[in-house]
Amino acid sequence: MDLAYLWFWIVGIFFIGYFVLDGFDFGVGMSLPFLGKNDVSRRQIINTIGPVWDLNETWVIVAGAVLFAAFPNWYATLFSGFYLPLLLILLALIVRGVSFEYRHQRDSLQWKRRFDTMIVVGSAVPSLLWGVAFANIVQGVPIDADMEFTGTLLTLLNPYGLLGGVTTLLLFFTHGLYFIALKTDDPVRGDARRLAGLAGMLTIVVAAAFLVWTIFIAAGREAPLLVFVIAAAAIAAVCLIMSVLFNARDREGWAFGFGAATIVTAVLSLFFALFPYVMPSSTDPAYSLTIDNASSTDYTLTIMSWAALVFLPMIVLYQGWTYWVFRKRVTRATIERAAAEVH
């Protein structure tokens, strides 16, 4: 198998890992206005991701580094053409990380509320813009013969791109609610489960529309993996429905698992629809970036393959160990006891 094609799928794996892991982080952050009825509840919600959010975020750093090394032309066109949305994502992630660390530095309620607002914004903006970005990559953007993006920010804010953004926003929000229900006790757990039921129903409708539109785009481009696009989209739809059903039956572990599977298969459908392109050109198909013309040399990809063979399993094992260590629920009594000790 050509190493460039192998690394196309490895890039996909890194983004899938990022969207599954940081996706529920974003959902937890966005849930604060709905579930954080008092400071104890808000601390309980934030503490569910306290030990893992920064580790989850490293997946996008690795994904960007892999993209730069394996597909330099894809990286250059993507980061120059999508400069503003990617910058907004970066700023939002910085704001969110700072807020996690600073909200507890003062006992002022107003101080905490300001940082809570920043957590919400820092979670919602990436959730929306990642969907906009990936939808545009799949649909195709104006690229000239020099592999340069010739559009503007408004070019990216098209109906399909915005639908992709709303889809990821709702998917991550629902995914985060499942995680909160899995990691907390009542009353936050019950509130999260009820809200997840409502959010899940809305997500089913929006995600179905986006995936059907994606299938039509792939069919119009005569994508060689169209059958896999349809299959992955269908599996994603089934998994999303199953997550809502298990949530309604108070089985938050299964709901979270099927929610994660929804994101995995939905992102897979996008990569199946994209293949063998990495950035189709809406200006002229001849100007499109493909796996072949955007990749690094075989020598570079060979070195990267050996590095991935060694370090990728270590990353997965370390992250799995981290989740095992912090697997217990964050109870309200624990938060109240910690607050009493401080005072």
Quick synopsis:
The chain crosses the membrane at residues 6-35, 81-98, 119-140, 160-182, 194-219, 225-246, 253-279, 299-326. Helix content is 79%, strand content 1%.
Class based on secondary structure composition and strand pairing: mainly alpha
Quick one: how many beta strands?
A: 2
> Helical stretch count?
15
Overall structural domain count: 1
Integer average pLDDT = 92
Along the chain, the helix and strand elements come as HHHHHHHHHHHHEEHHH
Note poorly predicted spans. none
Query: What is the 3D form?
Result: globular
Q: What amount of the residues lies in strands? A: under 5%
Strand order of the biggest β-sheet: 1-2
**What is the rounded distance between the termini?**
62 Å
Portion in helices: over 70%
Sheet of most strands:
2 strands, antiparallel
Please state the CA-atom Rg, rounded to the nearest Å.
20 Å
InterPro entries: Cyt-d_oxidase_su2
Organism: Microbacterium aurantiacum
Transmembrane segments: 6-35, 81-98, 119-140, 160-182, 194-219, 225-246, 253-279, 299-326
Family: Belongs to the cytochrome ubiquinol oxidase subunit 2 family.
